[in-house]
Protein backbone atom coordinates (compact mmCIF):
# COMPACT_ATOMS: atom_id res chain seq x y z
CA UNK A 1 0.00 0.00 0.00
CA UNK A 2 2.85 2.39 0.90
CA UNK A 3 4.56 1.63 -2.41
CA UNK A 4 1.30 2.34 -4.26
CA UNK A 5 0.99 5.75 -2.54
CA UNK A 6 4.59 6.66 -3.36
CA UNK A 7 4.11 5.65 -7.01
CA UNK A 8 0.85 7.62 -7.31
CA UNK A 9 2.38 10.76 -5.79
CA UNK A 10 5.51 10.45 -7.92
CA UNK A 11 3.65 10.74 -11.21
CA UNK A 12 2.17 14.11 -10.10
CA UNK A 13 5.51 15.60 -9.04
CA UNK A 14 5.99 16.72 -12.64
CA UNK A 15 2.45 17.67 -13.60
CA UNK A 16 3.40 19.04 -17.00
CA UNK A 17 5.24 15.88 -18.08
CA UNK A 18 2.50 13.57 -16.79
CA UNK A 19 -0.20 15.72 -18.41
CA UNK A 20 1.55 15.57 -21.77
CA UNK A 21 1.78 11.77 -21.55
CA UNK A 22 -1.87 11.48 -20.47
CA UNK A 23 -2.94 13.80 -23.31
CA UNK A 24 -0.95 11.73 -25.82
CA UNK A 25 -2.51 8.47 -24.62
CA UNK A 26 -6.02 9.95 -24.53
CA UNK A 27 -5.82 11.57 -27.98
CA UNK A 28 -4.36 8.38 -29.47
CA UNK A 29 -7.19 6.31 -28.04
CA UNK A 30 -9.79 8.86 -29.17
CA UNK A 31 -8.50 8.73 -32.75
CA UNK A 32 -8.28 4.96 -32.81
CA UNK A 33 -11.59 4.26 -31.11
CA UNK A 34 -13.53 6.81 -33.14
CA UNK A 35 -12.08 5.51 -36.43
CA UNK A 36 -12.93 1.96 -35.41
CA UNK A 37 -16.44 2.96 -34.34
CA UNK A 38 -16.99 4.76 -37.65
CA UNK A 39 -15.93 1.75 -39.72
CA UNK A 40 -17.88 -0.58 -37.43
CA UNK A 41 -21.01 1.58 -37.77
CA UNK A 42 -20.73 1.62 -41.58
CA UNK A 43 -20.35 -2.16 -41.69
CA UNK A 44 -23.26 -2.74 -39.28
CA UNK A 45 -25.48 -0.42 -41.34
CA UNK A 46 -24.54 -2.25 -44.54
CA UNK A 47 -25.34 -5.63 -42.98
CA UNK A 48 -28.62 -4.43 -41.47
CA UNK A 49 -29.67 -2.78 -44.75
CA UNK A 50 -28.97 -6.02 -46.61
CA UNK A 51 -31.22 -7.89 -44.17
CA UNK A 52 -34.14 -5.45 -44.29
CA UNK A 53 -34.07 -4.63 -48.02
CA UNK A 54 -32.48 -7.54 -49.84
CA UNK A 55 -32.15 -10.97 -48.22
CA UNK A 56 -33.83 -11.34 -44.84
CA UNK A 57 -32.10 -13.84 -42.51
CA UNK A 58 -32.91 -17.12 -44.30
CA UNK A 59 -34.27 -18.10 -47.70
CA UNK A 60 -35.71 -21.28 -49.20
CA UNK A 61 -35.48 -22.04 -52.93
CA UNK A 62 -35.70 -24.93 -55.34
CA UNK A 63 -32.43 -26.94 -54.92
CA UNK A 64 -31.24 -25.90 -58.41
CA UNK A 65 -32.44 -22.30 -58.36
CA UNK A 66 -29.03 -20.79 -57.50
CA UNK A 67 -27.41 -22.40 -60.58
CA UNK A 68 -30.32 -21.84 -62.97
CA UNK A 69 -32.87 -19.15 -62.21
CA UNK A 70 -35.40 -20.71 -64.58
CA UNK A 71 -38.99 -19.72 -63.94
CA UNK A 72 -39.90 -23.42 -63.53
CA UNK A 73 -37.50 -23.86 -60.57
CA UNK A 74 -40.24 -23.29 -58.02
CA UNK A 75 -40.95 -24.45 -54.48
CA UNK A 76 -44.14 -26.52 -54.16
CA UNK A 77 -46.65 -26.71 -51.28
CA UNK A 78 -45.72 -23.17 -50.35
CA UNK A 79 -48.65 -22.45 -48.01
CA UNK A 80 -47.91 -25.54 -45.89
CA UNK A 81 -44.25 -24.47 -45.63
CA UNK A 82 -45.24 -20.91 -44.68
CA UNK A 83 -47.53 -22.21 -41.92
CA UNK A 84 -44.85 -24.53 -40.55
CA UNK A 85 -42.24 -21.76 -40.61
CA UNK A 86 -44.59 -19.30 -38.90
CA UNK A 87 -44.92 -21.70 -35.94
CA UNK A 88 -41.18 -22.45 -35.78
CA UNK A 89 -39.49 -21.09 -32.61
CA UNK A 90 -37.36 -18.03 -33.27
CA UNK A 91 -39.03 -17.10 -36.59
CA UNK A 92 -40.43 -13.56 -36.43
CA UNK A 93 -42.00 -13.29 -39.89
CA UNK A 94 -42.12 -15.11 -43.20
CA UNK A 95 -43.24 -14.31 -46.74
CA UNK A 96 -43.15 -15.81 -50.23
CA UNK A 97 -41.97 -14.24 -53.46
CA UNK A 98 -42.29 -14.99 -57.18
CA UNK A 99 -39.16 -13.97 -59.07
CA UNK A 100 -38.46 -13.50 -62.75
CA UNK A 101 -35.95 -11.57 -64.80
CA UNK A 102 -37.28 -9.43 -67.64
CA UNK A 103 -37.29 -6.11 -69.41
CA UNK A 104 -38.97 -2.92 -68.25
CA UNK A 105 -39.85 -0.40 -70.91
CA UNK A 106 -41.38 3.03 -71.28
CA UNK A 107 -41.74 5.12 -74.41
CA UNK A 108 -38.27 6.51 -73.73
CA UNK A 109 -36.07 3.59 -72.73
CA UNK A 110 -35.97 -0.04 -71.64
CA UNK A 111 -33.82 -1.75 -69.05
CA UNK A 112 -33.30 -5.24 -67.67
CA UNK A 113 -34.74 -5.75 -64.18
CA UNK A 114 -35.46 -8.38 -61.56
CA UNK A 115 -39.23 -8.52 -61.11
CA UNK A 116 -40.25 -9.43 -57.55
CA UNK A 117 -43.80 -10.60 -56.88
CA UNK A 118 -44.85 -9.91 -53.28
CA UNK A 119 -47.79 -10.22 -50.90
CA UNK A 120 -47.76 -6.62 -49.57
CA UNK A 121 -49.00 -7.38 -46.03
CA UNK A 122 -46.50 -10.21 -45.36
CA UNK A 123 -43.76 -8.36 -47.26
CA UNK A 124 -44.01 -5.41 -44.87
CA UNK A 125 -43.39 -7.73 -41.92
CA UNK A 126 -40.17 -9.06 -43.49
CA UNK A 127 -38.72 -6.18 -45.53
CA UNK A 128 -38.66 -2.41 -45.05
CA UNK A 129 -38.88 -1.24 -48.66
CA UNK A 130 -42.24 0.34 -47.87
CA UNK A 131 -40.51 2.62 -45.34
CA UNK A 132 -38.30 4.04 -48.09
CA UNK A 133 -41.25 5.55 -49.96
CA UNK A 134 -41.80 9.13 -48.79
CA UNK A 135 -45.25 10.70 -48.57
CA UNK A 136 -44.93 12.44 -51.97
CA UNK A 137 -43.80 9.29 -53.78
CA UNK A 138 -46.88 7.06 -53.59
CA UNK A 139 -47.35 3.93 -51.48
CA UNK A 140 -46.33 0.28 -51.28
CA UNK A 141 -49.55 -1.22 -52.75
CA UNK A 142 -51.83 0.42 -50.13
CA UNK A 143 -54.64 0.54 -52.72
CA UNK A 144 -55.63 -2.77 -54.23
CA UNK A 145 -55.36 -1.92 -57.90
CA UNK A 146 -54.68 -4.51 -60.58
CA UNK A 147 -51.25 -4.43 -62.25
CA UNK A 148 -49.59 -1.95 -59.89
CA UNK A 149 -45.82 -1.63 -59.74
CA UNK A 150 -43.36 -0.06 -57.29
CA UNK A 151 -40.02 0.98 -58.76
CA UNK A 152 -37.02 2.88 -57.44
CA UNK A 153 -36.42 6.56 -58.02
CA UNK A 154 -33.13 5.65 -59.68
CA UNK A 155 -34.89 3.41 -62.23
CA UNK A 156 -37.64 6.00 -62.71
CA UNK A 157 -34.97 8.55 -63.63
CA UNK A 158 -33.43 6.14 -66.14
CA UNK A 159 -36.80 5.29 -67.71
CA UNK A 160 -38.07 8.88 -67.40
CA UNK A 161 -41.08 7.53 -65.52
CA UNK A 162 -43.06 8.99 -62.62
CA UNK A 163 -46.08 8.15 -60.49
CA UNK A 164 -48.98 6.83 -62.62
CA UNK A 165 -46.65 6.20 -65.56
CA UNK A 166 -47.15 2.93 -67.42
CA UNK A 167 -44.27 0.48 -67.59
CA UNK A 168 -44.39 -2.59 -69.80
CA UNK A 169 -42.74 -5.69 -68.34
CA UNK A 170 -41.81 -8.54 -70.69
CA UNK A 171 -40.42 -11.91 -69.65
CA UNK A 172 -40.63 -15.63 -70.33
CA UNK A 173 -43.64 -17.36 -68.76
CA UNK A 174 -43.91 -20.80 -67.14
CA UNK A 175 -44.60 -22.42 -70.52
CA UNK A 176 -41.53 -20.91 -72.16
CA UNK A 177 -43.45 -18.26 -74.13
CA UNK A 178 -42.48 -14.59 -74.16
CA UNK A 179 -45.25 -12.64 -72.46
CA UNK A 180 -45.75 -9.31 -70.77
CA UNK A 181 -48.14 -6.78 -69.30
CA UNK A 182 -48.46 -3.07 -68.62
CA UNK A 183 -48.16 -1.93 -65.00
CA UNK A 184 -48.94 1.48 -63.49
CA UNK A 185 -46.39 3.02 -61.11
CA UNK A 186 -47.93 3.47 -57.63
CA UNK A 187 -44.78 3.99 -55.57
CA UNK A 188 -41.16 5.19 -55.86
CA UNK A 189 -38.65 3.96 -53.29
CA UNK A 190 -35.02 4.79 -52.57
CA UNK A 191 -32.61 2.73 -50.48
CA UNK A 192 -28.92 3.39 -49.82
CA UNK A 193 -27.85 0.96 -52.57
CA UNK A 194 -28.22 2.69 -55.92
CA UNK A 195 -27.20 -0.25 -58.19
CA UNK A 196 -29.61 -2.59 -56.37
CA UNK A 197 -32.41 -0.02 -56.68
CA UNK A 198 -32.04 0.16 -60.46
CA UNK A 199 -32.33 -3.62 -60.75
CA UNK A 200 -35.45 -4.38 -58.67
CA UNK A 201 -39.13 -3.68 -59.26
CA UNK A 202 -42.04 -4.98 -57.17
CA UNK A 203 -45.48 -6.14 -58.27
CA UNK A 204 -48.23 -8.10 -56.53
CA UNK A 205 -47.81 -11.88 -56.45
CA UNK A 206 -51.31 -12.40 -57.85
CA UNK A 207 -50.63 -10.16 -60.88
CA UNK A 208 -47.27 -11.74 -61.66
CA UNK A 209 -48.53 -15.31 -61.11
CA UNK A 210 -51.39 -14.67 -63.53
CA UNK A 211 -49.14 -13.36 -66.32
CA UNK A 212 -46.49 -16.02 -65.67
CA UNK A 213 -49.16 -18.75 -65.61
CA UNK A 214 -47.36 -20.24 -62.64
CA UNK A 215 -49.24 -23.17 -60.98
CA UNK A 216 -51.07 -22.51 -57.71
CA UNK A 217 -49.31 -22.92 -54.38
CA UNK A 218 -45.87 -22.44 -55.92
CA UNK A 219 -43.30 -19.67 -55.55
CA UNK A 220 -39.59 -19.16 -56.16
CA UNK A 221 -38.55 -17.95 -52.75
CA UNK A 222 -39.59 -18.06 -49.10
CA UNK A 223 -37.90 -15.47 -46.91
CA UNK A 224 -37.80 -15.49 -43.11
CA UNK A 225 -36.58 -13.04 -40.51
CA UNK A 226 -35.59 -14.29 -37.07
CA UNK A 227 -35.66 -12.82 -33.59
CA UNK A 228 -31.85 -13.23 -33.58
CA UNK A 229 -30.10 -13.37 -36.97
CA UNK A 230 -27.09 -15.13 -35.42
CA UNK A 231 -29.29 -18.20 -34.83
CA UNK A 232 -29.78 -18.67 -38.59
CA UNK A 233 -26.79 -20.99 -39.05
CA UNK A 234 -28.09 -23.29 -36.29
CA UNK A 235 -31.62 -23.43 -37.70
CA UNK A 236 -30.64 -24.24 -41.28
CA UNK A 237 -29.88 -27.93 -40.66
CA UNK A 238 -33.15 -28.59 -38.85
CA UNK A 239 -35.25 -26.76 -41.45
CA UNK A 240 -33.42 -28.54 -44.26
CA UNK A 241 -34.51 -31.89 -42.79
CA UNK A 242 -38.12 -30.64 -42.65
CA UNK A 243 -38.06 -29.48 -46.28
CA UNK A 244 -35.95 -32.08 -48.17
CA UNK A 245 -37.43 -30.98 -51.52
CA UNK A 246 -35.99 -27.46 -51.15
CA UNK A 247 -32.71 -25.78 -50.27
CA UNK A 248 -32.51 -23.75 -47.05
CA UNK A 249 -29.76 -21.12 -46.81
CA UNK A 250 -28.86 -18.60 -44.14
CA UNK A 251 -27.70 -15.03 -44.77
CA UNK A 252 -24.00 -15.97 -44.68
CA UNK A 253 -24.51 -18.43 -47.57
CA UNK A 254 -26.72 -16.01 -49.49
CA UNK A 255 -24.33 -13.07 -49.09
CA UNK A 256 -20.84 -14.34 -48.24
CA UNK A 257 -19.47 -10.81 -48.37
CA UNK A 258 -21.49 -9.94 -45.24
CA UNK A 259 -19.63 -12.40 -43.03
CA UNK A 260 -16.41 -11.45 -44.83
CA UNK A 261 -17.08 -7.79 -44.07
CA UNK A 262 -17.66 -8.57 -40.39
CA UNK A 263 -14.34 -10.42 -40.16
CA UNK A 264 -12.58 -7.68 -42.16
CA UNK A 265 -13.78 -4.98 -39.76
CA UNK A 266 -12.52 -7.00 -36.76
CA UNK A 267 -9.14 -7.34 -38.48
CA UNK A 268 -8.98 -3.62 -39.30
CA UNK A 269 -9.89 -2.68 -35.73
CA UNK A 270 -7.23 -5.06 -34.41
CA UNK A 271 -4.66 -3.47 -36.73
CA UNK A 272 -5.65 0.04 -35.60
CA UNK A 273 -5.26 -0.95 -31.95
CA UNK A 274 -1.88 -2.61 -32.54
CA UNK A 275 -0.60 0.64 -34.13
CA UNK A 276 -2.04 2.80 -31.34
CA UNK A 277 -0.83 0.56 -28.52
CA UNK A 278 2.58 0.26 -30.17
CA UNK A 279 2.92 4.06 -30.27
CA UNK A 280 1.61 4.18 -26.70
CA UNK A 281 4.23 1.65 -25.58
CA UNK A 282 7.15 3.54 -27.14
CA UNK A 283 5.86 6.79 -25.59
CA UNK A 284 5.71 5.20 -22.15
CA UNK A 285 9.21 3.71 -22.46
CA UNK A 286 10.63 7.10 -23.45
CA UNK A 287 8.83 8.95 -20.64
CA UNK A 288 9.79 6.46 -17.92
CA UNK A 289 13.42 6.43 -19.04
CA UNK A 290 13.44 10.21 -18.55
CA UNK A 291 11.87 9.73 -15.13
CA UNK A 292 14.58 7.25 -14.12
CA UNK A 293 17.29 9.59 -15.44
CA UNK A 294 15.88 12.62 -13.58
CA UNK A 295 15.46 10.66 -10.36
CA UNK A 296 18.76 8.80 -10.35
CA UNK A 297 19.89 10.48 -7.12
CA UNK A 298 16.53 9.87 -5.42
CA UNK A 299 16.48 6.19 -6.42
CA UNK A 300 20.04 5.80 -5.19
CA UNK A 301 19.08 7.26 -1.81
CA UNK A 302 16.07 4.98 -1.53
CA UNK A 303 18.24 1.94 -2.19
CA UNK A 304 20.92 3.22 0.22
CA UNK A 305 18.42 3.48 3.12
CA UNK A 306 17.17 -0.05 2.55
CA UNK A 307 14.59 -0.15 -0.25
CA UNK A 308 15.12 -3.44 -2.02
CA UNK A 309 15.69 -3.66 -5.76
CA UNK A 310 12.43 -5.60 -6.03
CA UNK A 311 10.48 -2.71 -4.47
CA UNK A 312 12.23 -0.17 -6.73
CA UNK A 313 11.26 -2.31 -9.71
CA UNK A 314 7.64 -2.50 -8.52
CA UNK A 315 7.51 1.26 -7.87
CA UNK A 316 8.60 2.10 -11.45
CA UNK A 317 6.08 -0.39 -12.84
CA UNK A 318 3.25 1.01 -10.70
CA UNK A 319 4.03 4.58 -11.81
CA UNK A 320 3.86 3.45 -15.44
CA UNK A 321 0.60 1.57 -14.96
CA UNK A 322 -1.02 4.53 -13.15
CA UNK A 323 0.06 6.90 -15.91
CA UNK A 324 -1.34 4.60 -18.63
CA UNK A 325 -4.54 3.93 -16.70
CA UNK A 326 -5.31 7.63 -16.20
CA UNK A 327 -4.60 8.38 -19.87
CA UNK A 328 -6.58 5.32 -20.96
CA UNK A 329 -9.63 6.12 -18.84
CA UNK A 330 -9.63 9.79 -19.92
CA UNK A 331 -9.27 8.72 -23.58
CA UNK A 332 -12.06 6.16 -23.31
CA UNK A 333 -14.44 8.55 -21.54
CA UNK A 334 -13.90 11.23 -24.20
CA UNK A 335 -14.25 8.58 -26.93
CA UNK A 336 -17.47 7.29 -25.40
CA UNK A 337 -18.98 10.80 -25.31
CA UNK A 338 -17.93 11.61 -28.90
CA UNK A 339 -19.04 8.22 -30.29
CA UNK A 340 -22.42 8.36 -28.49
CA UNK A 341 -22.98 11.90 -29.79
CA UNK A 342 -22.35 10.94 -33.42
CA UNK A 343 -24.23 7.66 -32.94
CA UNK A 344 -27.36 9.76 -32.40
CA UNK A 345 -26.71 12.67 -34.77
CA UNK A 346 -24.86 10.71 -37.49
CA UNK A 347 -22.00 11.84 -39.71
CA UNK A 348 -23.45 13.44 -42.81
CA UNK A 349 -21.42 12.67 -45.93
CA UNK A 350 -24.11 13.82 -48.36
CA UNK A 351 -21.50 15.72 -50.39
CA UNK A 352 -20.17 12.31 -51.48
CA UNK A 353 -23.51 10.54 -51.01
CA UNK A 354 -23.90 9.50 -54.64
CA UNK A 355 -20.50 7.82 -54.61
CA UNK A 356 -21.19 6.00 -51.33
CA UNK A 357 -24.61 4.80 -52.48
CA UNK A 358 -23.06 3.50 -55.69
CA UNK A 359 -21.17 0.97 -53.54
CA UNK A 360 -24.07 0.25 -51.18
CA UNK A 361 -23.25 2.53 -48.22
CA UNK A 362 -25.49 5.18 -46.67
CA UNK A 363 -24.55 8.86 -46.97
CA UNK A 364 -25.28 9.34 -43.25
CA UNK A 365 -23.34 6.94 -41.05
CA UNK A 366 -23.70 6.26 -37.33
CA UNK A 367 -20.50 5.25 -35.49
CA UNK A 368 -21.02 2.57 -32.87
CA UNK A 369 -18.79 0.47 -30.63
CA UNK A 370 -19.91 -2.42 -28.46
CA UNK A 371 -19.44 -2.01 -24.69
CA UNK A 372 -17.10 -4.98 -24.40
CA UNK A 373 -14.65 -3.26 -26.76
CA UNK A 374 -13.96 -0.57 -24.13
CA UNK A 375 -13.19 -3.26 -21.55
CA UNK A 376 -10.89 -5.07 -24.00
CA UNK A 377 -9.02 -1.85 -24.75
CA UNK A 378 -8.63 -0.99 -21.05
CA UNK A 379 -7.05 -4.40 -20.47
CA UNK A 380 -4.78 -3.95 -23.53
CA UNK A 381 -3.65 -0.50 -22.30
CA UNK A 382 -2.71 -1.99 -18.91
CA UNK A 383 -0.86 -4.91 -20.55
CA UNK A 384 0.98 -2.47 -22.84
CA UNK A 385 1.92 -0.31 -19.85
CA UNK A 386 3.27 -3.33 -17.94
CA UNK A 387 5.37 -4.45 -20.91
CA UNK A 388 6.59 -0.91 -21.61
CA UNK A 389 7.61 -0.39 -17.99
CA UNK A 390 9.93 -3.40 -17.84
CA UNK A 391 12.90 -1.77 -19.62
CA UNK A 392 12.89 1.49 -17.57
CA UNK A 393 12.49 -0.57 -14.38
CA UNK A 394 15.48 -2.74 -15.31
CA UNK A 395 17.53 0.43 -15.94
CA UNK A 396 16.60 1.59 -12.43
CA UNK A 397 17.70 -1.76 -10.97
CA UNK A 398 21.15 -1.40 -12.51
CA UNK A 399 21.83 1.82 -10.55
CA UNK A 400 24.55 1.54 -7.91
CA UNK A 401 23.40 3.38 -4.76
CA UNK A 402 26.76 5.09 -4.06
CA UNK A 403 27.23 6.26 -7.65
CA UNK A 404 23.58 7.29 -7.98
CA UNK A 405 23.76 9.50 -4.86
CA UNK A 406 26.85 11.30 -6.21
CA UNK A 407 25.21 11.93 -9.59
CA UNK A 408 24.14 15.50 -10.48
**Helix percentage range:** 55-70%
Helix vs. strand class: alpha+beta
Q: Give the biggest sheet.
A: 6 strands, mixed, barrel
- Please tell me what the overall shape is: elongated
Element-by-element helix/strand order: HHEHEEHEHEEHEHEHEHHHHEHEHH
- Number of E-state strands: 11
User: Span from first to last CA?
Assistant: 31 Å
- Overall pLDDT confidence: 87
Compute the number of helices: 15
Poorly predicted runs: none
Radius of gyration equals 31 Å
How much β-strand is present in the residues?
A: 15-25%
Strand order, largest beta sheet: 2-3-7-4-6-5
Characterise this structure.
The protein is an alpha+beta fold and 408 residues long. The protein has 15 helices and eleven strands. The chain has helices spanning 2-11, 15-55, 78-86, 120-126, 153-159, 194-199, 205-212, 232-242, 251-254, 256-294, 296-304, 309-345, 353-358, 371-397, 401-406; strands at 58-61, 91-105, 110-118, 148-152, 166-172, 178-189, 200-204, 221-226, 247-250, 347-348, 364-365. The strands form two sheets. It has a six-stranded mixed β-barrel, surrounded by four helices. Strands 10-11 form a two-stranded antiparallel ribbon. The longest helix has 41 residues, at 15-55. The chain is elongated and about 100 Å long.
